[in-house]
């Protein structure tokens, strides 16, 4: 279990880094939401343009839709490039803790996949439970931030896992699917939970503090000390 219930907490699972998103500014205009899920107890789902949904996704094209790999920011962390995803939870009921129990990310050639992921024949490019730690989960605390829309966790997935060059024999497609499941260890009592990416992508790489520097430089959009460079 990775505990992100205190300000500035971070850790890695199967090669990806996860940071508590303390003091992040994620208001309208700054982020692009791509999937919302909501259910009592256990909730799960993935982004797609297809309707009807297979799980607990909310039926709004504004908040649940396809996602291009080119829309996901590249963040440089300790000299390594990662793709950045932002999670915003909304557990303002009797229990403010929530468990994130599964993350699986797939690449595809279209944006309208459907059905249960157990019926998909391809292997995810990232699976939180596939590392040496085995079955893993992340503990989150809604009370750390100012409410829904303020952001609660950053996920950094190694960019090297994604096959984005069409000329590469291992090319997997331009679209991403992020499947997540919540509530197996700490249940959902409110919701929705929302995944998003920062807007203004595909132009810059943000250089963020390495894990050791995180304790003295909490990451947030607009926080001083972040550097931008143009991609070649």
Q: What does this protein look like?
A:
There is one protein chain. This protein is mainly beta and 232 residues long. The protein has one domain. Helix content is 0%, strand content 36%. The chain has strands at residues 2-3, 10-13, 16-20, 31-37, 43-46, 67-68, 74-77, 80-88, 97-108, 126-127, 138-141, 153-158, 175-182, 193-198, 204-208, 227-230. The strands form two sheets. Strands 2, 3, 4, 7, 8, 12, 14, 15 and 16 form a nine-stranded mixed sheet that branches. Strands 1, 5, 6, 9, 10, 11 and 13 form a seven-stranded mixed sheet that branches. The termini are far apart. The model is unreliable at 215-232 (pLDDT under 50).
List segments where confidence is low: pLDDT < 50 over at least 5 consecutive residues: 215-232
**What's the count of strands?**
16
Q: In which range does the helix fraction lie?
A: under 10%
Q: In DSSP terms, counting alpha (H) and pi (I) runs of 4 or more, how many helices?
A: 0
Mean pLDDT: 85
SSE ordering? EEEEEEEEEEEEEEEE
**Class based on secondary structure composition and strand pairing:** mainly beta
- Sheet with the most strands, sense and barrel status: 9 strands, mixed
- Ends distance: 38 Å
Radius of gyration: 16 Å
What is the global morphology? Answer: globular
Strand content: 35-45%
Count up the domains: 1
